[in-house]
Amino acid sequence: MLNRVVLVGRLTRDPELRYTPNGVAVANFTIAVNRPFTNQQGKREADFINCVVWRRQAENLANFMKKGNMIGVDGRIQTRTYEAQDGRTVYVTEVVAESIQFLESKSSASGGGQPFASGFQQGQNQNQPVFPADESPVSEDPFKDNGEPIDISDDDLPF
């Protein structure tokens, strides 16, 4: 059997961080995920999906992300029930996040473009590190010979 959810969307409000009586961090949040089609009026609708994340990821989410930031969530759907104060049974369906990716930096909504805590900047591929100004990679043009033949021996080829 398979229960897997992958979502990319924007936080609809700041994550709500709490702690269990045993001191375990838990954050509840909702993300808005655009539907891949438009309605009859030509407008794109969104689904608002309730999510929960536990432990260190909950603290990181609450500390670094806020309303409007785009995140990626990988997890599973879980259902639960509880009895409300008025005696009625409440049914809850939510995504339990196992992994959260911050797809925007904390200050990107205000145009700051500060690096992530993980050392990557907004808008960059997650596989490209941020270099400090004094350690930038050599930006030599690999095509400066304009397609002219180069002198290389067969011993230098990796194949």
From TrEMBL:
It comes from the Bacteria. Plays an important role in DNA replication, recombination and repair. Binds to ssDNA and to an array of partner proteins to recruit them to their sites of action during DNA metabolism. This is Single-stranded DNA-binding protein. Homotetramer. Residues 106-159 are annotated as: Disordered. It comes from Compostibacillus humi. GO terms for molecular function: single-stranded DNA binding. The keyword DNA repair applies. One of its GO terms (biological process) is DNA replication. NCBIfam families: ssb. GO terms for cellular component: nucleoid. Residues 119-129 have a biased composition (Polar residues). The gene is ssb1. Keywords: DNA damage, DNA recombination, DNA repair, DNA replication, DNA-binding. The keyword DNA-binding applies. A motif (Important for interaction with partner proteins) lies at residues 154-159.
